[in-house]
Amino acid sequence: MIKTHILGFPRMGEHRELKTALERHWRGELPADALEAQAAALRARHWQLQLNAGLDHVTVGDFALYDHVAHLIQLFGCEPARFGFTADETPLQRYFAMARGTVARACCGGAHGDGTAALEMTKWFDTNYHYLVPEFGTDTEFSLHAERLLAEVDEAIALPASPKVALLGPVSFLFLGKSKQDGFDRLALLTRLLPVYEQLLTRLAARGVTWVQLDEPILGLDLTPAWAEALRQAYARLGVVGQPLLLASYFSPLADNLDLACELPVAGLHVDAARAPEELLPVARRLPLDRELSVGILDGRNIWRSDLDAALTQLRQVQELRGGRLWVAPSCSLLHVPFSLRHDAALDTELQGWLAGAVEKLDELRVLKRALWGDEASVARELAESRIARAHRIASRRVRNASVAARLKALSPEADQRHSHFPTRQAAQRQRLRLPAFPTTTIGSFPQTPEIRAARAAFKRGELSEAVYREAMLREIELAVAKQEALGLDVLVHGEAERNDMVEYFGEQLSGFAFTANGWVQSYGSRCVKPPVLFGDVSRPKAMTVDWTVFAQSLTNKPMKGMLTGPITILQWSFVRDDQPRADTALQIALAIRDEVADLEAAGIAVIQIDEPAIREGLPLRRDAWGPYLAWATRAFRVSASPVRDDTQIHTHMCYSEFNDILPEIAAMDADVITIETSRSDMELLRGFGQFKYPNEIGPGVYDIHSPRVPDTAEMLRLLKKAAEVIPPELLWVNPDCGLKTRGWAETEAALGRMVEAARALRRDA
Ligand code: GLN
Ligand code: ZN
User: Fold this and answer.
1) From CA 451, how far away is CA 745, in angstroms rounded?
2) Where is the active site (predicted)?
3) Residue 228: which residues within 8 A CB-CB, separation 6 or more?
4) Taking the CA of residue 154 as centre, how many other CA atoms within 13 Å lie in the half-sphere pointing to its CB?
5) Which residue, among 90, 87, 80, 142, has the nearest Cα to 117 in the 3D structure?
6) Cα-flanking dihedrals φ and ψ of residue 294, to 5°?
7) 21 half-sphere exposure, CB direction, 13 A CA radius
8) H/E element, 204
9) Would you list the DSSP string of 309-348?
10) Which of 484, 492, 616, 653 to mutate to test the pocket of ligand 1 (most atoms within 8 A of CB)?
11) Per-residue pLDDT tens digits for 450-459
């Protein structure tokens, strides 16, 4: 018997209908019942697509108005007490209050006035999806509130369809939450949580649900014995409730949890055969034959049309080992791919044919199931088309560029090394730049005002000529430079007015990238991103930033910092080709950036920043894979940064994360100056740099740019003094946490004015 199913489907809708509905609801333009009706219509449409593809079950429970983890917080009745909810508030109001905070909070991270800060948001494993973090403490109680979920089950049954309910499992739910009291171990809550899961499973079985998929993606992490034991304990109980359970793992190899995953007493196991193909046969052999094995054969994290022949070969091997029984699925929820790409208006037909969004992956499942049934003839046309598209992709001259390959091959081992060690470079740079102690700078972007956005939109619609648009951006650069001069900053930036997005801007100018019209992927809540498609060898037809930067430099005698996005960040925020190692693709991007660096230097630019905010998020989920990743990632950065003379100063910038566990590698990037986000941690993040004796110069962010709040000079001075306790003062720079593009000019000027004042005060005191 062959079954097909999916672990989850994108929620936004073909045209991001959910985003529109949510934002209208939040603006007070769409009542709650109308929002719910639209959500129900989207679910019905998405289930119909699953039925059309011949899936054996439609997946229920994966839909979320904002986030699926937040849904569980309500399902299990553990809304944090700090929200102080009253009986007057509807579940929907409470849900959005947790997701978005309450009004008085504005948009800062902390609680102010009468408002309550939203739940913290963090990355869902190594994806770009962000979930809301449950809060746990000694007083956390659980109780079942299954009305919403049961109503969705009924909707599916009414279609009619056979629902498989998909939820996060209890151990991953606790793992992904946060202990709100020091020293409180949230694992202690497991015994309180399990009875509620049990009740839910019983209710679902009574409702006619034949399968429940419980996701335990933490099986792909390095688990402590306590967490592994928790999985054993949980499934020893839930496995006997009588509701058949499919335990799902994804994103990462099971590795030392493979035996554990195969031993848990559940009715079925789903594994990710895209991320861990080498484990497929071992699992197929190891898993008892009375269990179902669901093979995640289609890559749920990427957008390439599958090699169906290769998939069939693998699946048949498993089929043979498993006495013919098999479930076939994408590797993980399709949440991480766009709704559809096959007819994307911005792509030519050739590229369209290479890609598969969620809808196309459903169709691949349909074809695989038919073929595995022995009915290959009925899908011969689809299999042939897929084969041809693949062959075209492999042979396409758009994918392979001989000169890029040759350059990569000829790259010398020293191409990632500067000419001299840091102390020599530092002396040469001091000579050239003549900066004061505690030099001040910013991270790159200045406010992207409504006027800038409007001009760009008009230009893209063809309503504004390139010349007029360019003029407008040059005026913005003039404005930004004049303001920085007036503020007294030491190293200036041009402000990035001409950039829509730090990756898209470069992708659009490099060969090997394509952009979709509708390839949206949910990032959090109603926010979606449209990652570029990196499909071919990367090269740089011409300089990308030199004109703008040289113009900006011509307006000032202060050093103008060239501003580039680094190879790992470009890689990390794109859909990346799967026909060569990511390391090779990173190196190709690095070479393109290297050329830009060289051109900037040749044009007289003395300071060049290469942003790598995403270097940490590229870390594999398993610790033993960190070393190889960091080796190629840091080398790619160095290759991009190393063509320059000693007296050209290379900066890098990182944010969004903790770095203390990869400090040696960050140091090995050997940037002359690194600026990092630290203000929200009260400089605590910097302590690691101090203890590690980070050798080069550092600019710890002295104020949080995520908030419109203008910090006091004294506050920044205090942070700087704190920084100077752990970092040798002669290495310290003064700058904000990150770019200022989301801020307005008024608060930006006020905050930077005080920042410059704080630096001056520090110079006086020092
Ligand atoms: N240079 C970029 C900016 O200032 C950096 C953005 C980032 O780190 N995310 O906007
Ligand atoms: Zn940043």
Assistant:
1) 12
2) 706
3) 257, 260
4) 7
5) 80
6) -100, 120
7) 21
8) helix 190-206
9) HHHHHHHHHHHHHTTT-EEEEESS-GGGS-S--TT-TTS-
10) 653
11) 999 999 999 9
Q: Compute the distance between CA of residue 702 and CA of residue 717 in angstroms, rounded to an integer.
A: 8
In 3-state terms, what secondary structure has residue 287? coil
Strand order in the sheet with 245-248: 2-4, 326-330, 292-298, 268-272, 245-248, 211-215, 163-168, 58-60
Contact yes or no for 43/152 (Cβ under 8 A): yes
Q: Is 374 left (phi over 0), alpha (psi -120 to 50) or beta?
A: left
Give the position of tokens 């509708």: 518
CA of 707 to the centre of ligand 2 (A): 14
Residues 6+ apart with CB under 8 A from 590: 567, 636, 637, 639, 640
User: 554-591 pLDDT, tens per residue?
Assistant: 999 999 999 999 999 999 999 999 999 999 999 999 99
Ligand 1 mutation target, pool 493, 500, 502, most atoms within 8 A of CB: 502
The pLDDT tens digits for 601-631 are 999 999 999 999 999 999 999 999 999 999 9
Task: Dig out the tokens for 119 from the structure.
Answer: 């739940």
What's the whole-model pTM score? Answer: 0.94
**Gap between the Cα atoms of 297 and 748, Å rounded:** 49
